[in-house]
Amino acid sequence: MIILGIESSCDDTSAAIIKDGILLSNVTASQAVHEAYGGVVPELASRAHQQNIVPVVDHALKKAGVTQEELSAIAFTRGPGLMGSLLVGVSFAKGLAASLNIPMIEVNHLQGHVLAHFVREEGDEHTAPPFPFLCLLVSGGNSQIILVRSYKDMEIIGKTIDDAAGEAIDKCSKVMGMGYPGGPIIDRLARNGNPKAFEFARPQIAGYDYSFSGLKTSFLYNLREWVAEDPDFIERHKEDLAASLEYTIVDILMKKLRKAAKDLKIKHVALAGGVSANTGLRQAFEDHARRYGWTVYIPKFGYTTDNAAMIAMVGCFKYQEKEFCTMDKPAYSRVDI
Which domains, and CATH codes, for the chain? Predict the structure, then answer.
Protein backbone atom coordinates (compact mmCIF):
# COMPACT_ATOMS: atom_id res chain seq x y z
CA MET A 1 0.00 0.00 0.00
CA ILE A 2 1.67 3.19 -1.21
CA ILE A 3 -0.32 6.39 -0.69
CA LEU A 4 0.50 9.81 -2.11
CA GLY A 5 -0.92 12.61 0.05
CA ILE A 6 -1.50 16.13 -1.29
CA GLU A 7 -2.23 19.16 0.92
CA SER A 8 -3.06 22.64 -0.44
CA SER A 9 -5.71 24.10 1.86
CA CYS A 10 -3.99 27.43 2.61
CA ASP A 11 -0.50 28.70 1.77
CA ASP A 12 1.60 25.52 2.05
CA THR A 13 1.95 23.14 -0.89
CA SER A 14 2.80 19.71 0.47
CA ALA A 15 3.16 16.13 -0.79
CA ALA A 16 3.99 12.98 1.17
CA ILE A 17 4.44 9.26 0.55
CA ILE A 18 3.41 6.60 3.08
CA LYS A 19 4.21 2.95 2.33
CA ASP A 20 2.57 0.27 4.49
CA GLY A 21 2.04 2.77 7.29
CA ILE A 22 5.60 4.18 7.25
CA LEU A 23 6.29 7.76 6.13
CA LEU A 24 8.93 7.83 3.40
CA SER A 25 8.81 11.53 2.49
CA ASN A 26 7.03 14.75 3.46
CA VAL A 27 7.89 17.77 1.29
CA THR A 28 6.44 21.23 1.84
CA ALA A 29 6.87 24.50 -0.06
CA SER A 30 5.87 27.57 1.97
CA GLN A 31 4.93 30.99 0.60
CA ALA A 32 6.87 33.97 1.97
CA VAL A 33 4.97 36.41 -0.29
CA HIS A 34 2.20 36.87 2.31
CA GLU A 35 4.46 38.36 4.99
CA ALA A 36 4.36 41.78 3.32
CA TYR A 37 0.55 41.84 3.58
CA GLY A 38 0.20 40.73 7.20
CA GLY A 39 -1.89 37.69 6.25
CA VAL A 40 -2.58 35.15 3.52
CA VAL A 41 -3.77 36.68 0.23
CA PRO A 42 -5.98 34.00 -1.42
CA GLU A 43 -5.21 34.95 -5.03
CA LEU A 44 -1.45 34.96 -4.44
CA ALA A 45 -1.72 31.66 -2.57
CA SER A 46 -3.49 29.86 -5.42
CA ARG A 47 -0.97 31.16 -7.97
CA ALA A 48 1.93 29.93 -5.82
CA HIS A 49 0.29 26.51 -5.49
CA GLN A 50 0.16 26.26 -9.28
CA GLN A 51 3.89 26.91 -9.42
CA ASN A 52 4.76 24.55 -6.57
CA ILE A 53 2.50 21.51 -6.96
CA VAL A 54 4.43 19.69 -9.71
CA PRO A 55 7.97 20.09 -8.27
CA VAL A 56 6.76 19.30 -4.73
CA VAL A 57 5.06 16.04 -5.78
CA ASP A 58 8.04 15.12 -7.96
CA HIS A 59 10.44 15.74 -5.05
CA ALA A 60 8.29 13.69 -2.66
CA LEU A 61 8.27 10.72 -5.06
CA LYS A 62 12.03 10.87 -5.67
CA LYS A 63 12.83 11.29 -1.98
CA ALA A 64 10.71 8.22 -1.18
CA GLY A 65 12.27 6.21 -4.02
CA VAL A 66 8.82 5.56 -5.49
CA THR A 67 7.57 5.89 -9.06
CA GLN A 68 4.12 7.12 -10.06
CA GLU A 69 3.26 3.68 -11.36
CA GLU A 70 3.78 2.15 -7.90
CA LEU A 71 1.16 4.35 -6.23
CA SER A 72 -1.90 2.57 -4.84
CA ALA A 73 -4.04 5.69 -4.39
CA ILE A 74 -3.93 9.47 -4.08
CA ALA A 75 -5.27 11.13 -0.93
CA PHE A 76 -5.99 14.85 -1.20
CA THR A 77 -7.37 17.63 0.97
CA ARG A 78 -10.88 18.37 -0.26
CA GLY A 79 -11.53 21.03 2.41
CA PRO A 80 -12.00 23.11 4.41
CA GLY A 81 -9.69 25.89 3.34
CA LEU A 82 -9.21 28.62 0.73
CA MET A 83 -11.17 27.65 -2.37
CA GLY A 84 -8.55 28.80 -4.87
CA SER A 85 -5.79 26.90 -3.05
CA LEU A 86 -7.89 23.76 -2.69
CA LEU A 87 -8.80 23.75 -6.38
CA VAL A 88 -5.14 23.46 -7.35
CA GLY A 89 -4.55 20.39 -5.19
CA VAL A 90 -7.90 18.76 -6.00
CA SER A 91 -7.48 19.28 -9.75
CA PHE A 92 -3.92 17.96 -9.72
CA ALA A 93 -4.97 14.88 -7.73
CA LYS A 94 -7.82 14.16 -10.15
CA GLY A 95 -5.58 14.50 -13.19
CA LEU A 96 -2.82 12.28 -11.80
CA ALA A 97 -5.26 9.63 -10.51
CA ALA A 98 -7.02 9.51 -13.88
CA SER A 99 -3.74 9.18 -15.79
CA LEU A 100 -2.60 6.33 -13.54
CA ASN A 101 -6.07 4.74 -13.26
CA ILE A 102 -5.84 4.54 -9.45
CA PRO A 103 -8.44 5.46 -6.82
CA MET A 104 -8.78 8.85 -5.12
CA ILE A 105 -9.35 9.40 -1.40
CA GLU A 106 -10.87 12.66 -0.16
CA VAL A 107 -9.63 13.92 3.20
CA ASN A 108 -11.09 16.46 5.61
CA HIS A 109 -8.23 18.79 6.55
CA LEU A 110 -9.24 18.90 10.23
CA GLN A 111 -9.45 15.10 10.40
CA GLY A 112 -5.91 15.07 9.03
CA HIS A 113 -4.63 17.22 11.90
CA VAL A 114 -6.19 14.87 14.46
CA LEU A 115 -4.77 11.74 12.83
CA ALA A 116 -1.29 13.25 12.41
CA HIS A 117 -0.56 11.46 15.69
CA PHE A 118 -0.63 8.15 13.81
CA VAL A 119 2.12 9.08 11.33
CA ARG A 120 5.14 6.83 11.84
CA GLU A 121 8.67 7.14 10.49
CA GLU A 122 11.18 4.31 10.10
CA GLY A 123 12.45 3.32 13.55
CA ASP A 124 9.92 5.56 15.26
CA GLU A 125 8.80 4.15 18.60
CA HIS A 126 6.18 6.76 19.43
CA THR A 127 2.79 5.57 20.63
CA ALA A 128 -0.40 6.76 18.98
CA PRO A 129 -3.35 7.61 21.25
CA PRO A 130 -5.85 4.78 21.82
CA PHE A 131 -9.52 5.29 20.97
CA PRO A 132 -11.39 7.05 22.43
CA PHE A 133 -9.31 10.15 23.14
CA LEU A 134 -9.80 13.90 23.33
CA CYS A 135 -7.99 16.16 20.90
CA LEU A 136 -7.49 19.90 21.29
CA LEU A 137 -7.18 21.22 17.74
CA VAL A 138 -5.81 24.77 17.76
CA SER A 139 -4.80 26.70 14.65
CA GLY A 140 -5.20 30.05 12.94
CA GLY A 141 -8.72 29.15 11.88
CA ASN A 142 -9.87 26.58 14.43
CA SER A 143 -10.07 26.09 18.18
CA GLN A 144 -11.92 22.85 18.86
CA ILE A 145 -12.21 20.07 21.41
CA ILE A 146 -12.85 16.83 19.55
CA LEU A 147 -13.96 13.49 20.93
CA VAL A 148 -12.24 10.88 18.76
CA ARG A 149 -13.94 7.47 18.94
CA SER A 150 -12.26 6.08 15.78
CA TYR A 151 -10.55 7.41 12.68
CA LYS A 152 -13.96 8.03 11.08
CA ASP A 153 -16.01 8.80 14.19
CA MET A 154 -15.12 12.24 15.50
CA GLU A 155 -17.40 14.66 17.31
CA ILE A 156 -16.69 18.33 17.93
CA ILE A 157 -17.92 18.91 21.48
CA GLY A 158 -16.53 22.43 21.82
CA LYS A 159 -15.39 25.14 19.41
CA THR A 160 -14.79 28.87 19.15
CA ILE A 161 -17.88 30.98 18.58
CA ASP A 162 -15.83 33.80 17.02
CA ASP A 163 -12.04 34.10 16.60
CA ALA A 164 -9.73 31.12 16.85
CA ALA A 165 -6.81 31.18 19.27
CA GLY A 166 -4.22 31.39 16.50
CA GLU A 167 -6.14 34.22 14.83
CA ALA A 168 -6.19 36.17 18.11
CA ILE A 169 -2.43 35.71 18.51
CA ASP A 170 -1.76 36.89 14.93
CA LYS A 171 -3.97 39.97 15.34
CA CYS A 172 -2.47 40.94 18.69
CA SER A 173 1.01 40.56 17.21
CA LYS A 174 -0.01 42.82 14.34
CA VAL A 175 -1.37 45.44 16.78
CA MET A 176 2.01 45.38 18.56
CA GLY A 177 3.74 45.89 15.20
CA MET A 178 5.57 42.58 15.53
CA GLY A 179 4.75 41.20 12.09
CA TYR A 180 3.15 38.11 10.56
CA PRO A 181 2.80 35.24 11.27
CA GLY A 182 2.43 36.22 14.90
CA GLY A 183 2.57 32.77 16.49
CA PRO A 184 6.35 32.19 16.34
CA ILE A 185 7.06 35.82 17.22
CA ILE A 186 4.85 35.85 20.33
CA ASP A 187 6.21 32.44 21.36
CA ARG A 188 9.80 33.65 21.15
CA LEU A 189 9.14 36.90 23.05
CA ALA A 190 7.07 35.13 25.72
CA ARG A 191 10.01 32.98 26.78
CA ASN A 192 11.66 36.04 28.33
CA GLY A 193 8.55 37.70 29.76
CA ASN A 194 6.42 37.64 32.91
CA PRO A 195 3.11 35.84 32.21
CA LYS A 196 1.45 37.59 35.18
CA ALA A 197 2.53 41.11 34.20
CA PHE A 198 -0.78 42.11 32.58
CA GLU A 199 -4.41 41.02 32.92
CA PHE A 200 -6.73 40.72 29.93
CA ALA A 201 -10.45 39.96 29.62
CA ARG A 202 -11.48 36.31 29.86
CA PRO A 203 -14.70 35.06 28.27
CA GLN A 204 -17.52 33.49 30.26
CA ILE A 205 -18.91 30.96 27.78
CA ALA A 206 -21.03 27.99 28.83
CA GLY A 207 -20.09 24.39 28.07
CA TYR A 208 -16.93 23.57 26.17
CA ASP A 209 -17.08 26.42 23.63
CA TYR A 210 -14.42 29.12 23.29
CA SER A 211 -14.41 32.84 22.55
CA PHE A 212 -11.34 34.99 21.88
CA SER A 213 -12.81 38.18 20.41
CA GLY A 214 -13.20 39.77 23.87
CA LEU A 215 -9.59 39.01 24.74
CA LYS A 216 -8.43 40.52 21.47
CA THR A 217 -10.50 43.69 22.06
CA SER A 218 -9.25 43.96 25.65
CA PHE A 219 -5.66 43.66 24.46
CA LEU A 220 -6.19 46.39 21.85
CA TYR A 221 -7.92 48.88 24.17
CA ASN A 222 -5.42 48.40 26.98
CA LEU A 223 -2.53 48.82 24.59
CA ARG A 224 -3.99 52.08 23.24
CA GLU A 225 -4.22 53.52 26.75
CA TRP A 226 -0.71 52.44 27.71
CA VAL A 227 0.82 53.75 24.48
CA ALA A 228 -1.03 57.07 24.86
CA GLU A 229 0.71 57.53 28.21
CA ASP A 230 4.06 56.14 27.03
CA PRO A 231 4.83 55.99 23.26
CA ASP A 232 7.65 53.47 23.92
CA PHE A 233 5.45 51.19 26.02
CA ILE A 234 5.32 48.31 23.53
CA GLU A 235 9.07 48.24 22.94
CA ARG A 236 9.83 48.34 26.66
CA HIS A 237 7.25 45.70 27.61
CA LYS A 238 7.00 43.47 24.52
CA GLU A 239 8.24 40.34 26.31
CA ASP A 240 5.78 40.78 29.19
CA LEU A 241 2.92 41.57 26.79
CA ALA A 242 3.66 38.44 24.76
CA ALA A 243 3.98 36.27 27.86
CA SER A 244 0.75 37.61 29.39
CA LEU A 245 -1.15 37.14 26.12
CA GLU A 246 0.14 33.60 25.71
CA TYR A 247 -0.60 32.73 29.34
CA THR A 248 -4.20 34.00 29.07
CA ILE A 249 -4.92 32.11 25.84
CA VAL A 250 -3.37 28.86 27.08
CA ASP A 251 -5.27 29.13 30.37
CA ILE A 252 -8.58 29.61 28.50
CA LEU A 253 -7.86 26.61 26.27
CA MET A 254 -6.83 24.30 29.10
CA LYS A 255 -9.71 25.22 31.41
CA LYS A 256 -12.31 23.96 28.92
CA LEU A 257 -10.19 20.93 28.03
CA ARG A 258 -9.92 19.99 31.74
CA LYS A 259 -13.70 20.23 32.07
CA ALA A 260 -14.25 17.99 29.02
CA ALA A 261 -11.73 15.39 30.21
CA LYS A 262 -13.30 15.31 33.68
CA ASP A 263 -16.91 15.14 32.45
CA LEU A 264 -16.17 12.40 29.89
CA LYS A 265 -13.73 10.56 32.17
CA ILE A 266 -11.05 10.43 29.48
CA LYS A 267 -7.36 10.40 30.41
CA HIS A 268 -5.83 10.21 26.90
CA VAL A 269 -5.55 13.76 25.55
CA ALA A 270 -3.89 14.89 22.30
CA LEU A 271 -2.84 18.24 20.87
CA ALA A 272 -2.98 19.16 17.17
CA GLY A 273 -2.93 22.11 14.76
CA GLY A 274 -0.51 24.94 14.05
CA VAL A 275 -0.72 26.50 17.53
CA SER A 276 0.37 23.15 19.01
CA ALA A 277 3.91 24.31 18.19
CA ASN A 278 3.56 26.96 20.92
CA THR A 279 5.98 26.32 23.78
CA GLY A 280 3.59 27.50 26.49
CA LEU A 281 0.77 25.26 25.30
CA ARG A 282 3.07 22.25 25.09
CA GLN A 283 4.30 22.93 28.61
CA ALA A 284 0.71 23.19 29.84
CA PHE A 285 0.00 19.73 28.43
CA GLU A 286 3.02 18.31 30.23
CA ASP A 287 1.93 20.02 33.47
CA HIS A 288 -1.59 18.61 33.17
CA ALA A 289 -0.18 15.14 32.58
CA ARG A 290 1.58 15.31 35.95
CA ARG A 291 -1.24 17.05 37.81
CA TYR A 292 -4.28 15.15 36.51
CA GLY A 293 -2.81 11.82 35.47
CA TRP A 294 -3.38 12.40 31.77
CA THR A 295 -1.46 10.55 29.09
CA VAL A 296 -0.73 13.33 26.61
CA TYR A 297 0.18 13.15 22.94
CA ILE A 298 2.07 16.11 21.49
CA PRO A 299 2.94 16.05 17.76
CA LYS A 300 6.40 16.56 16.34
CA PHE A 301 6.92 20.10 15.10
CA GLY A 302 6.85 18.89 11.49
CA TYR A 303 3.27 17.69 11.91
CA THR A 304 1.88 20.77 13.65
CA THR A 305 1.44 23.02 10.63
CA ASP A 306 -0.29 22.01 7.39
CA ASN A 307 1.47 19.00 5.88
CA ALA A 308 0.72 16.14 3.50
CA ALA A 309 1.91 13.39 5.88
CA MET A 310 -1.31 13.74 7.87
CA ILE A 311 -3.36 13.64 4.65
CA ALA A 312 -1.60 10.48 3.48
CA MET A 313 -2.17 8.97 6.94
CA VAL A 314 -5.94 9.45 6.66
CA GLY A 315 -5.60 7.99 3.18
CA CYS A 316 -4.07 4.83 4.66
CA PHE A 317 -7.01 4.34 7.03
CA LYS A 318 -9.53 4.91 4.26
CA TYR A 319 -7.68 2.77 1.71
CA GLN A 320 -7.93 -0.26 4.00
CA GLU A 321 -11.71 0.29 4.18
CA LYS A 322 -11.90 0.98 0.41
CA GLU A 323 -13.38 4.43 1.06
CA PHE A 324 -12.69 5.94 -2.34
CA CYS A 325 -14.29 8.98 -3.97
CA THR A 326 -15.37 9.76 -7.51
CA MET A 327 -14.02 12.37 -9.90
CA ASP A 328 -17.08 14.61 -9.52
CA LYS A 329 -16.28 15.54 -5.90
CA PRO A 330 -15.65 19.33 -5.74
CA ALA A 331 -13.53 21.17 -3.20
CA TYR A 332 -15.36 22.80 -0.28
CA SER A 333 -14.26 25.84 1.73
CA ARG A 334 -16.24 25.26 4.94
CA VAL A 335 -17.27 22.13 6.81
CA ASP A 336 -16.90 20.52 10.22
CA ILE A 337 -15.30 17.13 10.83
Answer: 2-125+303-320 (3.30.420.40), 133-302 (3.30.420.40)
